[in-house]
Specification:
This protein is an alpha+beta fold. The protein is about 20% helix and about 40% strand. The longest helix is centred in the middle third of the chain and has 15 residues. The mean pLDDT is about 95.
Length: about 290
């Protein structure tokens, strides 16, 4: 399946920004089933300095600075992708590695991939392991439970027990609060799943990207109506990183497009940096269009 994705981010400031330095995670990356054919970034006002880079996690980064007064900042990214079906869902029924076996491998990692995976069992900026999170899933992820099948059941459990509510949380809402209130958005459900898995000693990472949304039958798809999205992945030595989307109760395949991954949202924030002046507030407007080609 081929896609064209256009992601427009606009900031409007209450007063002119005189100078800004930014790093953006807006350039997509390749995965085992995703190939980025091309990607172009247009920034307004035109930066005096801009360059591409790669961060610690292998994500594409885009650095830029603007040194002229501006009340509006616009970042317009257009990317083309070729995505093949993800085969991990076909292996759920036959995969036999247990949670206990995976924890034993992580306790004595003997390959570079396992040693890197251990990092994803630790705390990070937005995710802290806890007794409450461990107790929520300890029985589910017991030593004898098959990891892959259990992770899928856990994904289904979050979808069933939690309500999608964009007004309930903020970017800094901790997973324990999401667990208590049983509501949030895709970022919250991804953080919750990762926090629970890490609390029982399993490696999980955060994935940021897009998901294609389809209109009801007979209706036209609206431009800009798609959305940025977040889900999580669990590491298995023989399969690599296996993805799960608790917001939509599925294992991602062709309709999920990956931009970046890390320990949590803080590692893949779409735009972060420093601004000088700009008044006492700003408004953010985001438009995403995922088009099948």
């Amino acid at each position: 399946m081929k896609y064209r994705v256009r992601h427009i981010t606009k900031y409007q400031y209450n007063a002119p920004v005189t100078l800004c330095y930014n790093m953006a995670h807006v350039m997509p990356r390749d995965t085992h089933n995703q190939k980025c054919l091309s990607s172009a970034v247009h920034i307004s006002p035109t930066p005096i300095y801009q360059r591409e880079g790669v961060d610690y996690f292998g994500n594409a980064t885009y650095y830029f600075s603007i040194q002229e007064p501006h009340k509006t900042l616009a970042i317009d990214v257009v990317s083309y992708f070729d995505i093949t079906p993800n085969q991990h869902a076909l292996q759920v029924a036959t995969h036999t590695l247990t949670c206990g076996q995976l924890r034993a491998l992580l306790a004595q990692p003997n390959t570079p991939a396992l040693r890197l995976a251990v990092e994803y069992t630790l705390d990070s900026t937005h995710i802290r392991r806890s007794k409450a999170l461990r107790e929520y899933v300890a029985e589910l992820f017991n030593d004898d439970a098959p990891v892959l099948q259990t992770a899928l059941r856990f994904t289904q459990q979050i979808f069933r027990d939690f309500k999608f509510d964009p007004t309930a949380t903020s970017v800094s809402t901790p997973p324990e609060q999401v667990l208590k209130e049983k509501r949030g958005v895709c970022q919250d459900f991804a953080h919750l799943a990762i926090a629970c898995l890490r609390s029982v000693g399993l490696p999980a990472r955060y994935i940021s990207g897009y998901i294609e949304t389809l209109p009801p039958p007979g209706q036209e798809k609206l431009v800009g109506a798609d959305a940025s999205h977040a889900w999580f992945a669990l590491y298995l030595p023989d399969l690599g990183w296996v993805e799960f989307d608790p917001t939509n109760n599925q294992m991602p395949s062709e309709q999920h497009i990956v931009t970046a991954w890390g320990r949590d949202y803080a590692d893949v924030t779409p735009l972060q940096g420093v601004i000088f002046d700009g008044g006492d507030g700003q408004q953010l407007h985001v438009s995403v269009d995922v088009q099948r080609l």
